[in-house]
């Protein structure tokens, strides 16, 4: 599965999380995975809740629009979000940043 896949009304994000990090942020995106660091520990839903909060803030969507397809108890997750105009705009920004960073590393 690619890092970001659009199917009809939804965007699917293939995510690998690292918990107990210094900072919560989207670290890197390659062709297959979005790498996210979470400051929260991986217990009692803290990391999943922080991931949902990060994605909600990033895509400017309500937390109720974010669903775990798989990986609820794993560091590898597939997340489904409603594909809106705002989500499309934010995905473009994220992918443009990825492209820009790839070009400077070459």
What does this structure look like?
- There is one protein chain.
- It is built from two helices and six strands.
- The chain is of the alpha+beta class.
- Strands 1, 2, 3, 4, 5 and 6 form a six-stranded mixed beta sheet that branches.
- A hairpin with a 4-residue loop joins strand 3 and strand 4.
- The model has no long low-confidence stretch (mean pLDDT 88).
Summarize the structure.
33% of the residues lie in helices and 32% in strands. The protein is built from two helices and six strands; from the N terminus they run E-E-E-E-H-E-E-H.
What form results from the Cα inertia axes? globular
Structural class: alpha+beta
> Radius of gyration over alpha carbons?
13 Å
Mean of residue pLDDT values? 88
Oligomer: single chain
- SSE topology string: EEEEHEEH
Q: CATH superfamily membership, which one?
A: YggU-like
- Spans where pLDDT lies below 50 across 5 or more residues: none
Architecture, according to CATH? 2-Layer Sandwich
Proportion of residues in helical segments: 25-40%
What is the count of β-strands? 6
Name the descriptors.
6 strands; Conserved Hypothetical Protein Mth637, Chain: A; 2 helices; six-stranded mixed sheet; globular; 106 residues; 32% strand; alpha+beta; 33% helix
């Amino acid at each position: 599965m690619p890092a970001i896949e659009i199917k009809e009304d939804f965007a699917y994000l293939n995510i690998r999380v690292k918990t107990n990090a210094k900072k919560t942020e989207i670290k890197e995106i390659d062709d297959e995975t979005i790498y996210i660091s979470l400051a929260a520990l991986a217990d009692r839903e803290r990391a999943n809740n922080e991931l949902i909060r990060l994605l909600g803030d990033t895509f400017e969507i309500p937390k109720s629009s974010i669903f775990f397809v798989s990986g609820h108890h794993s560091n590898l997750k597939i997340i489904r979000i409603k594909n809106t105009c705002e989500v499309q705009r934010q995905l473009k920004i994220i992918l443009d940043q990825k492209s820009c960073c790839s070009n400077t590393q070459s």
